[in-house]
């Protein structure tokens, strides 16, 4: 079996793991198998019949890393902007932590909350602690790779501009932050698992994910508020009680303490927190592992009470799906979207972000201009930000734990157009629409009734965007692939989305200058949607997923 | 006789639903236990608790004379398990999977590898030892799972529907193997819905219904109280006598309407 470099690196810490009562050789073994499994994602229906695909997952992950490096380039700006380390490094750590938390809760929650291993591993002489540590390190491996990719530009900059000491402390703190956020997320899950149970628990987990997305975005907004910009280059830091709750400020203070000899009491307290809180979180976490694993089982406990049949959704299905086959897939997709735990674990955090993105600019503006100032602005265009997560969600639709069930598509030789139509509509109604309605209600309160037509335009534009993204993206039958541990970087898809939005927002904005332009535009959008959704799914017969390509391996 | 598993006053609930009600069991070394009961009676739950997969329960369980809560790890070294749902990392090859499992049992790689390969040979699937498990047929996969449960030369084997998908020839081999293992003093805990196999194989049958033990004894014991095959005893004890009525209902429900006749 392949020996991974990470494992040889881990061997250095062998003594540490032994002291924590972890069976190191066993943990290493489990980790090795996990990494091997990650490199072998397969799908039931293989696109283009290529056999290379079996080993592609790892490459997918490696290929997504430059995207993070690209994002990391922007951090350089923060490092160079000021000699006030609390100020500059707070932004670096803030942005970094937001990115990592987002990735952690959406991509890696399912690894932390995995219960499938239990039957295979825990029936062997392996204890909870060892299995759990393997899981955490599995997550850490990916988080670490992403971190290094993202922080590479700023680390190099700090080495050149601030010297080797600064660089080493920076590197060290970045790793501490990684550990801290993993422990923090895991601790949140421990509490949830402890407090709730049964069907309620499964729902709560997803709301917690949305809550966490909210939490990290809001905390990030707060960082900027800690500082006062009296003049352009004169930045002063004002500690307030809540600034003690912002981890990025703790970490940035360490630089102020070590390299500026700043001995203000608040700097000392922050720096102490930067070291003590992560250590405490690790200790608490290790203490709580047995509770964690025990309560994880709750996620698997069958609740025999069936959920009530969703009548409203059936009615909506009847209205928006023109034929029977499409309606079947609408209902089918609705059920999977609403019930499959892994799907929800990976998609709900994105929903959290699409719920909060529209408000980021508005909140800043309210703080500067007050509610009145906002009411007269055109900031309601930020409703389009709701759609920023569409690429991710559409991409996730292809995955399922029960991907082998995809044989039904070919057995019943269904029309693929109906499958896509039904599934995308189900996604639009069940995931996008509730969020859109919620935001609309708040927007109507902020901007008053004058924006109703704009909201309608926004809604219709999102629907059209979904169609366009499907049309120009690669088409994979829904729920027909296994989840990889990592998400492939779909930056290209994201750029496509931005282009589509650019055009739609431009048109929308243009119509606001023409009398009755918006109403004509609504009509045009309705017609476009009608035509696109009705006729636009026809496929050429030479589809890449014709029947011959179906294989189980 | 030497008691190897001892369960006292075992109770387990999921939420408000009680799935095991005061189970008491003494199992002796060298017994083959047929553990049977209708779906949802609590068979798998009992096994999962004994294997430490479910940790919250009331009552005491001793395996090899020690309470499993005191040392939840060590006793598993001497246990083999074939789970009901064929849980397996099926993106691994059989070699990778089996050596992994062997190493979890604390064996050396070379030792497991050799043993696993020989067992694959004996089970007539040597040629796929380096193939991915997800390309295997159901029976081949099941054989791999059975091999994985035997690698550590366990003293107690928990088998949950172990023969599903396996061809008749191999079934004969496996049954023979089980009888042989018992002769060597191993204990086997066998759950299945296939009554003929249970009847032939087990020297003691435990019937669970609705979370309670409703019968416990050898086939002769059961026959002295009730008539017929194990299947009919099973039906009598679980209070089931409507099979022909239900079957008729099903058949008449399946029947197509006149509209579809042309298809």
UniProtKB/TrEMBL annotation, chain A:
Highest taxon listed in the record's lineage: Bacteria
Transmembrane stretches, start-end: 60-80, 86-106, 139-161, 167-192, 204-223, 267-288, 347-367, 379-397, 426-445, 451-470, 491-510, 516-533
Sorted UniProt keywords: Membrane, Transmembrane, Transmembrane helix
Protein name per its UniProtKB record: Uncharacterized protein
Higher taxonomy: Bacteria, Bacillati, Bacillota, Tissierellia, Tissierellales
């Amino acid at each position: 079996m392949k020996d991974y470099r990470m494992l040889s690196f881990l061997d250095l810490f062998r003594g540490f793991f032994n002291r924590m009562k972890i069976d190191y050789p066993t943990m290493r073994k489990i980790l090795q198998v996990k990494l091997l499994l990650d490199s072998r994602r397969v799908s039931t229906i293989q696109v283009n019949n290529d056999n290379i695909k079996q080993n592609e997952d790892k490459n997918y992950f490696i290929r997504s890393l430059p995207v993070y490096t690209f994002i990391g380039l922007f951090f350089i700006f923060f490092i160079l902007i000021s000699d006030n380390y609390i100020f500059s490094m707070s932004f670096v750590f803030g942005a970094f932590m937001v990115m990592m938390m987002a990735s952690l809760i959406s991509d890696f929650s399912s690894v932390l909350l995995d219960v499938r291993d239990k039957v295979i591993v825990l029936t062997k002489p392996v204890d909870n602690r060892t299995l759990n540590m393997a899981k955490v390190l599995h997550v850490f491996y990916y988080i670490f790779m992403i971190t290094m990719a993202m922080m590479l530009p700023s680390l190099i900059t700090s080495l050149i501009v601030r010297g080797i000491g600064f660089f080493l402390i920076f590197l060290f703190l970045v790793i501490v932050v990684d550990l801290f956020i993993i422990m923090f997320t895991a601790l949140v899950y421990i509490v949830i698992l402890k407090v709730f149970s049964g069907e309620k628990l499964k729902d709560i987990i997803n709301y917690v994910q949305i809550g966490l997305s909210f939490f990290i975005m809001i905390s990030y907004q707060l960082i900027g508020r800690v500082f006062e910009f009296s003049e352009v280059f004169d930045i002063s830091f004002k500690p307030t009680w809540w600034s003690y709750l912002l981890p990025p400020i703790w970490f940035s203070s360490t630089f102020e303490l070590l390299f500026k000899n700043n001995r203000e009491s608040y700097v000392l307290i922050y720096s102490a927190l930067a070291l003590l809180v992560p250590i405490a979180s690790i200790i608490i976490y290790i203490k709580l592992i047995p509770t964690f694993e025990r309560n994880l089982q709750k996620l698997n406990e069958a609740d025999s009470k069936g959920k009530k049949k969703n009548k409203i959704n059936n009615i909506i299905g009847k209205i928006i799906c023109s034929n029977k086959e499409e309606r079947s897939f609408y209902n089918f997709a609705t059920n999977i979207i609403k019930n499959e735990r892994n799907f929800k674990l990976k998609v709900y955090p994105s929903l959290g972000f699409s719920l909060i993105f529209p408000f980021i600019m508005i909140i800043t503006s309210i703080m500067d201009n007050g509610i009145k100032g906002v009411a007269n602005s055109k900031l309601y265009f930020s409703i389009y930000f709701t759609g920023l997560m569409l690429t991710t969600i559409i991409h996730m639709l292809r995955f399922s734990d029960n991907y082998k069930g995809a044989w039904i598509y070919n057995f019943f030789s269904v029309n693929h157009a109906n499958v896509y139509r039904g599934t995308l509509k189900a996604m639009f109604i069940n995931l996008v629409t509730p969020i859109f309605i919620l935001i609309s209600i708040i927007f109507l309160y902020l901007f008053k009734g004058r924006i109703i037509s704009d909201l309608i335009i926004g809604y219709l534009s999102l629907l059209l965007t979904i169609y366009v993204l499907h049309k120009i993206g690669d088409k994979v039958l829904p729920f027909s692939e296994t989840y990889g541990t990592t998400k492939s970087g779909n930056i290209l898809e994201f750029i496509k989305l931005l282009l589509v939005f650019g055009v739609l927002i431009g048109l929308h904005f243009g119509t606001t200058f023409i009398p009755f332009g918006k109403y004509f535009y609504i009509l045009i959008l309705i017609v476009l949607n009608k035509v696109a959704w009705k006729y636009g799914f026809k496929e050429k017969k030479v589809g890449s997923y014709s029947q011959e390509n179906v294989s189980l391996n | 006789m030497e008691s190897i598993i001892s369960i006292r006053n075992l109770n387990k609930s999921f939420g408000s639903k009680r799935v095991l009600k005061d189970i008491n069991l003494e199992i002796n070394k060298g017994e083959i236990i047929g553990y049977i009961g209708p779906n949802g009676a609590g068979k798998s739950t009992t096994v999962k608790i004994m294997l430490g997969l479910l940790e919250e329960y009331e009552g005491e369980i001793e395996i090899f004379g020690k309470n499993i809560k005191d040392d939840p790890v060590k006793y598993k070294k001497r246990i083999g398990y074939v789970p009901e749902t064929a849980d397996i990392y099926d993106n691994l090859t059989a070699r990778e999977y089996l050596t992994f499992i062997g190493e979890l049992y604390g064996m050396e790689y070379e030792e497991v590898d050799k043993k696993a390969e020989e067992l694959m040979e004996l089970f007539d699937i040597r040629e796929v030892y380096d193939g991915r498990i997800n390309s295997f047929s159901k029976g081949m996969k099941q054989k791999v799972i059975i091999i994985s449960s035997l690698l550590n030369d366990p003293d107690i084997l928990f088998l949950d529907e172990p023969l599903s998908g396996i061809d008749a020839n191999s079934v004969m081999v496996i049954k023979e193997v089980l009888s042989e293992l018992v002769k060597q003093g191993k204990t086997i805990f066998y759950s299945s819905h296939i009554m003929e196999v249970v009847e032939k194989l087990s020297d003691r049958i435990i019937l669970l219904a609705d979370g309670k033990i409703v019968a416990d004894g050898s086939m002769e014991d059961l026959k002295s109280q009730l008539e017929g095959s194990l299947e009919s005893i099973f039906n009598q004890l679980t209070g089931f006598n409507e099979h022909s009525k239900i079957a008729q209902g099903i058949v008449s429900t399946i029947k197509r309407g006149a509209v579809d006749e042309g298809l």
